[in-house]
Write a structure and sequence with these properties.
With about 270 residues, the chain is α/β, with parallel strands linked by helices. The protein is about 40% helix and about 15% strand. The chain contains 10 helices and 8 strands. α1 links the parallel β1 and β2.
């Protein structure tokens, strides 16, 4: 089986496909568990409801660094929401100076709030890092995020940066970007990340991998990401699937308590 460690099911255009179809298509690729990630306190109940309705879906709670509308989270509020057994992680959180540099102070304060809440409930973090490497890693260290660990999602940096995140106890997750022609530094990191810290994801509906680049991404497309990374590392697809699935459930143990969906039926 394979796991999509980061997607946004609720943000995929419902006019193009239903949640049920998305999950069926994923199962046909042996993608049998998905982590649906919250980006605001407004959409957190929707994400949780998907996890409650579908055995193969887990949920997180958090506010994306680029989110400027809605309620600003507090540590007690996030911690209370994250206590829910269906919530396996805190985030998506982090820093993004590519789009939100003018809100750097707000982003940093919010990031610290998420880390403190995660430490309070003992659940891992889902970290977004874009054009903010030094500040992201510095705040993780200052706030003792190593106590709970987590994942650097949609990793788009080089191997030296991955090594710094690994030293803080974090996993590294690769998205469809690793398949892009311009992504050699990311591919170099994907080759070198220790096997026990490796994850793959779609970040659907964004960042569809080659050969689907430009289309709306979907969890089934994590198959292309996984197979590409397997080839980079000299592994069979089955070996890579088993590796990243084992890593996912080790990092997110609350997801392991949910039943895993059965493999898709094979044609006669």
């Amino acid at each position: 089986m394979l796991v999509d460690s980061h997607c946004h099911l609720d943000l995929i255009d419902p006019d193009l496909t239903s949640i049920e179809t998305l999950l069926e298509d994923a199962a046909a690729q042996d993608v049998r568990h998905l982590l649906c990630v919250s980006v605001s306190l407004d959409n957190a109940p929707v994400v949780r409801a998907l996890a409650a309705r579908h055995a193969q879906v887990s949920a997180s709670v958090g506010v994306h660094p680029n989110q400027t509308d809605g309620v600003e989270p507090t540590v007690p509020q996030l911690a209370a929401l994250a206590q829910d057994p269906l919530i396996v992680a805190v985030g998506e959180t982090g820093l993004d100076y590519h789009y939100g540099a003018e809100h750097a102070d707000l982003q940093q304060a919010r990031f610290r709030t998420h880390i403190r809440a995660a430490r309070e409930v003992g659940k891992p973090l889902i970290v977004h890092m874009r054009s903010a490497t030094d500040d992201t890693l510095r705040i993780l260290a200052e706030e003792r995020a190593t106590d709970v660990g987590g994942v650097m999602h949609c990793f788009t940096e080089d191997w030296p940066t991955a090594r710094r995140a690994l030293e803080l106890g974090f996993h590294i997750s690769f998205s469809g970007i690793v398949t892009f022609k311009s992504a050699e530094p990311i591919r170099d990191a994907a080759r070198q990340v220790p096997a026990e810290r490796l994850l793959v994801e779609t970040d659907a509906p964004y960042l569809a991998p080659v050969p689907f680049r430009g289309q709306q991404n979907r969890p089934a497309f994590v198959r292309q990401v996984a197979d590409f990374v397997a080839d980079l590392r000299g592994l069979s697809p089955a070996e890579l699937d088993a590796l990243v699935s084992r890593n996912f459930f080790a990092l997110f143990p609350h997801a392991a308590s949910k039943p895993i969906s059965a493999p898709a039926a094979q044609p006669a």
